[in-house]
Amino acid sequence: MIRVLLVDDQPLLRGGFRALLDLEDDIEVVGEAGDGLAGLALTREFVPDIVLIDIQMPVLDGIEATRRIAADPALAGVHVVILTNYGFDEHVFAALRAGAAGFLVKDIVPEDFLHAVRVAARGDALLAPSITRRLIDDYVTQPLRPGDHAALAELTNREREAVVLVARGLSNDQIAERMAISPMTAKTHVNRAMSKVRARDRAQLVILAYESGLVAPRGPQPPIRSA
Asked: What local confidence, expressed as pLDDT, does residue 42 receive?
């Protein structure tokens, strides 16, 4: 059973999402909140699998609520999915850095919404193709931020290759096909890489890949070296 918490200051929107989720046998809505602080309290109380949270809310915004959830070891298994009206705006980078597992546009069709909840519950990054494209295009125009990416040196050759493919937006099945391995092995490579670089989820793995220069969409890719 996938346990979901809804956090949005618009009751009508929360009600619409809940109505969809309540129809599914494998999904349970454990609670609702109208502001970020209340959502944070309910997250700590119920420890859901998924928190669907709006960015702009009273009392505590979605980005700060996400940051606090991601920083709490007791909530390590909680995946935060940001709800946004715009698809892509200046909040996307901040939310990913805060620990968001992905984004959903509020005008998403019901079938895609339900699929997205299940994808997020598996721990996969949830970035719509339009958001991923904008994320990549906008991110690589910014200068690389200094940081300690020494953990990348611990990755094996195959793990590095998997990280590159994750950063290019491929699913585990697509990674498996590209690397000529089974989907389970692909997932293992990705999970081990996440563990080694201390990435909370695939979305943070994507950010690290671009920050470190492991992936450079506008130009030749750096060689993948064995660790």
From this structure: 97
